[in-house]
Write a structure and sequence with these properties.
The structure is a homotrimer of 356-residue chains. Chain A is of the alpha/beta class and 356 residues long. The first copy, chain A, contains six helices and 40 strands. Chain A folds into three domains: 95 residues, MurE/MurF, N-terminal domain (Udp-n-acetylmuramoylalanyl-d-glutamate--2,6- Diaminopimelate Ligase, Chain: A, domain 1), CATH 3.40.1390; 202 residues, UDP N-Acetylglucosamine Acyltransferase, domain 1 (3 Solenoid); 41 residues. An eleven-stranded parallel sheet of chain A has the order 8-11-14-17-20-25-28-31-34-37-39, with no helix packed on it. In chain A, strands 9-12-15-18-21-26-29-32-35-38 form a ten-stranded parallel sheet, with no helix packed on it. The longest helix of chain A is centred in the C-terminal third of the chain and has 28 residues. Chain A is flat, with a radius of gyration of 28 Å. The model of chain A has no long low-confidence stretch (mean pLDDT 95). Chains in contact: A-B, A-C, B-C. Chains A and B meet through β22, β23, β38, β39 and α5 of A and α4, β40, α5 and α6 of B. Chains A, B, C: Keywords: Acyltransferase, Coiled coil, Lipid A biosynthesis, Lipid biosynthesis, Lipid metabolism, Repeat, Transferase. Chains A, B, C: GO terms for molecular function: N-acyltransferase activity; UDP-3-O-[(3R)-3-hydroxyacyl]-glucosamine N-acyltransferase activity. Chains A, B, C: Its EC number is 2.3.1.191. Chains A, B, C: InterPro entries: Hexapep, Hexapep_transf_CS, LpxD, Trimer_LpxA-like_sf, UDP_GlcNAc_AcTrfase_non-rep.
Chain lengths: 356, 356, 356
């Protein structure tokens, strides 16, 4: 199977330089592209390499095009953001071969008669859908998923196998929930009485916007009274924990193993590196970037990059530095003593001078 | 739906001051309570605010009651621990509207004929229960759960959808296992022979007491030979890992993403902040509190609060501090040199004096 | 049930000293072994204790045997690596009592007619197997598992309940996938355009070798274009995240809660302590050992032990040390000032001398 560049440009935009009838069979990085591929130049440093590419066509930015064109003889698609174009083109190629699940409910699924399932939705084997749930158009729910009472799954959203989506929670359109994700589990809310914990019922929901991806085995707690909110375009990787009543702003992305404690309010367009942790009730401004492995223990009200992890070293060196870190106040005392000693010496010296 | 305060006090205790016929429709925090709500004052600093509350009734402590009563004209329930009372009252309100799952086994469930399921238990769709398992009175097992051979689920325990509870493990009464939790998976036990790992069979169980909550996607390993033990009243949040042969004392609580390596012995009434880690074979005393993101690499034999995480900073500042941390032994050397130099100077100075 | 030592030695090797007709009913550690057990001495420091053991038989190394034999009167199995022998013997004992799942497909399972299931495989209740999947000889797939299109499960591999194994992924022989594990979920790949993320289709596979164990709720991403590769003998504990296009060398082991970001290349015979994190695109050499809780933020090209976590302290002490860590550059400045001051003093002193 192959497609014409004219077709790709019609679908994904960009300015085509070269034959619209050029056929390409797939998309590949510069170093791996063969003569039937289309490739892309997303980093200007690789311009020379791009110029030598064997690919039938190249996606390039206006800035890079002139230089590439000096040596490259294939077709070019010129577009502002070649990497984004690559993503869209790859989606297009994938759609051509993807097996679209047939509409309808698998006979082994357990769908409550009081649930509303759109006729265009696909409900896979051994899925459970409870009463009052609403499953939108072109939704795909793969095998083994659970959708609770009165939950709402927006149009074209995809639940991979073995997702759990609890009662009354809501997700918008074009979302992706990966396997093992649990949405709307109870938050960790207890009152303590004489050392014993008494459960506080968690009666809020999780409300998720459009175009949200949630990774495998990620968990999102329902709100205690109010809702946990995840705005449009948020991307959560695998193994993430989002506490009750968190609010995550639009187009924020979190890498794997991140944890966000309850009631944290996180801005838009933020990024969190893997295993970063955010304490509860904090506020994080828009455009904040937290490095992997960092512990956010106070609110961050200014955009920027923030970091806090202990640098890696050979174990023997770490043992030395860690021992000193443990006793840094001793070191500070020594410095103070030194400062004092020098002051004394200097004073004596000037005293001597005065006397002389 | 609304309830009379008399009914609430009969159920939850406390001293009612005001009309027993006062009707309330729900419970809400001070700032959100409307005229038909009951609210609560759990923090004395908010006494003034409580005095102005619109709520039909207030839950207050004996200490705060007199001051609140000066301005507040609604009914009051006086009780030692208003927050705990709030939790109980909220449970009561929730129970009024909760849909109680009907007793019986869903036709799509796969229950081995050699399993014992109490007639009052609810077994949801597509659940698997293996031979020899014992399911107690009023147990609720939601869709997609798995209960292994000879496992025991105590009375009124609730397994949310898609829990895995392995063979021979035991949980007591009134427990809650959240979706995706895995109880009784094999511990990580291997013998190494020439670099290759040979699996050591994990033949112990997980034995869980009464009133234990285990969060979504949390995993608890079965013991290698002896059992992994979780005592009464323990509360584990989501995404936690408990290694084989751990022993967790009663009423200890762990926030999300905590990890406890094998054979750790943790006391009663401890708390662990999110993503804290405990190494294997350690002992943690009762009433130890570990801050979020802290690595417990040695036993803690004294109660108290313990912390160990690198403080967050702007990335540029972190880079500076991390570079110095890497070279702290150099800094220590410099201080030693300075101390020596000053000693020399001081000695010379006093030498000069002696000479003069 | 009991077995003769002759039978054990025939199966597991080793040199038997004593009666081949000695019967043992199970295997137990030195301190717990009773008169019908076989025990083992894996640590020479315990030789004296072993000599006093009540066990019917002992597994000992050639080095320890002579000393043990001075006081111990039971049978001995002499072998180079008693701990590995213990593991094998324990496997043997376990196999004697294990319930072997019957071959065949449970009637409640949903197996696509276009899947190939070996006649010796066991497919449990409520399992889904998609078209084109290939299930090898003696494979055991427990209840609630999902196996995607064209996936390949090698001979004698065991999927515990509720595993998700996605389309086109491959696992070799004798693997163990624990409950809640998700293999072949989409990697976290997006192109950013004006702040908005565009999904890059993840079309690679996960390719897993022989004798690989993957823990409960562990997630392994499929490759973006190329494959994610896990070589023979790798052991992954619970709650681990492996990003897309990672390559994990043979016989590497990772403890619980480890995270490995995309495209990391990890060598053979490595070990990672719990909650260690590895950033993306790094290279880790063979025989590298990373301590628990350590953040690997750069490639490690030399074997050895590496560590990087903030040492735990009482919270009040940590607050002091953390405040100093935040201001280490101030401390460095002070040291520089001191060095300068001393230089000045020393110069003046020698100046004085010159003048004198």
């Amino acid at each position: 199977m192959s497609i014409r560049l004219a077709e790709l440009v019609e679908r994904c935009g960009g300015e085509l330089i070269g034959s619209p009838d050029t056929q390409v069979t797939g998309i590949a990085p510069l170093t791996e592209a063969g003569v039937s591929h289309i490739s892309f130049l997303s980093n200007s440093k690789l311009r020379a390499q791009a110029g030598q590419s064997r690919a039938a066509a190249l996606i390039v930015s206006p800035n890079d095009d002139a230089l590439v064109a000096q040596t490259y003889t294939g077709a070019r698609i010129v577009t502002k953001n070649p990497y984004a174009y690559f993503a869209r083109a790859a989606q297009y190629f994938e759609a051509l071969t993807a097996i679209v699940p047939a509409p309808g409910v698998h006979p082994s699924a357990s769908v409550d008669p009081a649930a509303q399932v759109d006729a265009t939705a696909h409900i896979g084997p051994l899925v459970t859908i409870e009463a009052g749930a609403v499953i939108g158009a072109h939704v795909v729910i793969d095998a083994g998923c659970y959708v609770g009472r009165d939950a709402v799954i927006g149009a074209s959203t995809h639940l991979f196998a073995n997702v759990t989506f609890h009662a009354r929670c809501v997700i918008g359109a074009r979302g992706i929930l990966h396997s093992g994700a649990v949405i709307g589990t109870d938050g960790f809310g207890f009152a303590n009485e004489g050392g014993v914990y008494i459960k506080i019922p968690q009666t809020g929901r999780v409300v998720i916007g459009d175009d949200v991806d949630i990774g495998a085995n990620t968990t999102v707690d329902r709100g205690a009274l109010a809702d946990t909110v995840i705005e449009d375009g948020v991307k959560l990787d695998n193994q993430i924990q989002i506490g009750h009543n968190c609010h995550i702003g639009a187009h924020t992305a979190m890498a794997g193993c991140v944890g966000v404690a309850g009631s944290a309010k996180i801005g838009k367009y933020c990024t969190f590196g893997g295993a970063a942790m955010v304490l509860g009730h904090l506020t994080i401004a828009d455009h904040v970037h937290v490095s992997s492995g960092s512990m956010v223990s106070r609110s961050i009200l200014e955009p920027g990059q923030y970091t806090g992890f202990y640098p890696l070293a050979k174990n023997s060196e770490w043992e030395k530095s860690a021992a000193i870190v443990r006793n840094l106040s001793t070191m500070r005392e020594k410095i103070r003593s030194l400062e004092k000693a020098i002051k004394t010496i200097t004073n004596q010296a000037s005293g001597h001078k005065d006397e002389s």
